[in-house]
UniProtKB/TrEMBL annotation:
Cofactor stoichiometry and binding remark: Binds a copper A center.
The family this protein is said to belong to: Belongs to the cytochrome c oxidase subunit 2 family.
Protein name according to UniProt: Cytochrome c oxidase subunit 2
PROSITE patterns: COX2 (PS00078), COX2_CUA (PS50857), COX2_TM (PS50999)
Transmembrane segments: 98-119, 140-161
Function in brief: Subunits I and II form the functional core of the enzyme complex. Electrons originating in cytochrome c are transferred via heme a and Cu(A) to the binuclear center formed by heme a3 and Cu(B).
Stretch list, region Disordered: 320-378
Length: 378
């Protein structure tokens, strides 16, 4: 194991892009009061895309070109994917410059100690064992050295953790990702609230009649989706995740993002994509029989192309620098898209219900089966 770690730390030829030697700064924390913390959103610079732009094509049509080896796993290659966010670049540097050398040094040191003990204190060389029970120097060393190793790792990791969960600034693009068994639904609350559903694209021999099958322009097998989500480059993204059923996890390795989607809870993080391209990910939480068929495909485009795509979807661009003021309810809660659709269906069938008061049902206590008193159980 130690030898393998040494070889890994030396950096073989068939690896992903190497992290920079100098530590890149993680994403800065939110600005203090009195300092501008407004994201460079795009309401002032939104020229329409050309009519033939693939971003304005029908849902499911391939969009931007996929760069080989970027934003996706590569056969025969190991190591972290090239990172396109500041936090990802910092984490890549920390992995290659801090973690791997530390792990390698500890493994080699322990291996050398074991070899020395086996050789030095074997029965032939040490027929009469020592009865020494304490060694102050050794006890001090084996306490201080692990503390120093932990401090070496903790200093950069705490900064990275803080940067990963810093609040998004005003003007960030809000993307709500909702996990379902087994596909993703996306909403853009600040851009009209429209919704996109992304399903796995089947292979040519697996698609039913009338279904569109995957092509190389869509992406790799098991990662291509019928609808890509589109996000702007250089603009902070406010990612919110939740779920309609079980725990899922929205993970895109090139963004250094993995955020659980939990029923009844909204999780939030923020990131900024630095480079245009197409980036793929998957659900990273075991969520059922088709867990492996929940891909994520993100197309990062210029702010002007993003605005044109929003317009093509029937959405609207918010005012420049405007903070998100949209209520984002949990799936199934009052005000959620599902509840609104359910209410519209009922109203269409029976007409709207007005001024009706329904008494809350009285439920027995779960443990004792006694009738509830007061507001308990209601």
């Amino acid at each position: 194991m130690a030898a393998g770690l040494v070889l890994t730390s030396l950096g073989p030829a068939a690896v992903h892009a190497t992290a920079p030697a100098v530590a890149p700064a993680p994403q800065a924390a939110a600005a203090p009061a009195g300092v501008s913390n407004i994201a460079p959103t795009t309401a002032d610079a939104t020229p329409p895309a050309a009519p033939a732009s693939p971003l304005l094509a029908r849902d499911g049509a391939p969009g931007g070109a996929i760069l080989p080896g970027i934003g996706q796993p590569v056969n025969g290659v190991y190591g972290l994917q090239p990172q396109v966010t500041r936090n990802g670049e910092f984490a890549h540097w920390m992995h290659d410059v801090v973690l791997l050398p530390t792990i390698t040094a500890i493994s080699l040191f322990v291996l050398a100690l074991l070899a020395w003990v086996v050789f030095r204190y074997r029965r032939a060389a040490n027929p009469v064992p020592s009865k020494t029970s304490h060694n102050t120097t050794i006890e001090v060393l084996w306490t201080l050295l692990p503390v120093l190793a932990l401090v070496l790792i903790a200093v950069p990791s705490i900064g990275l953790l803080q940067a990963q969960f810093k609040p998004a600034p005003a003007g960030a693009v809000t993307l709500k990702a909702i996990g379902n068994q087994w596909y993703w639904t996306y909403q853009y609350p600040d851009h009209g609230g429209f919704e996109i559903t992304a399903n796995l694209l089947k292979e040519k021999g697996e698609a039913a009649a009338g279904e569109r099958s995957r092509t190389d322009a869509d992406g790799p097998r098991l990662l291509a989706t019928d609808n890509r989500i589109v996000l702007p480059v250089g603009v902070p993204i406010r990612l919110i995740t939740t779920s309609n059923d079980v725990i899922h996890s929205w993970a895109v390795p090139a963004f250094w993002i993995k955020l659980d989607a939990i029923p009844g809870r909204l999780n939030e993080t923020s990131f900024t994509i630095d480079k245009p391209g197409v980036y793929f990910g998957q659900c990273s939480e075991l969520c059922g029989a088709r867990h492996a068929y929940m891909p994520i495909a993100v197309e990062a485009v210029t702010p002007a192309q993003f605005a044109a795509w929003i317009a093509a979807k029937g959405g609207t661009m918010p005012a420049r620098g405007q903070a998100s003021d949209k209520v984002i309810p949990q799936p199934g809660a009052e005000g959620s898209a599902a509840k609104v659709a359910e209410g519209n269906t009922v109203d269409a069938a029976t007409g709207p219900t007005e001024n009706v008061t329904v008494a809350a049902p009285t439920a027995p206590q779960g443990a004792t089966n006694n009738p509830a008193t007061g507001n308990a159980g209601q």
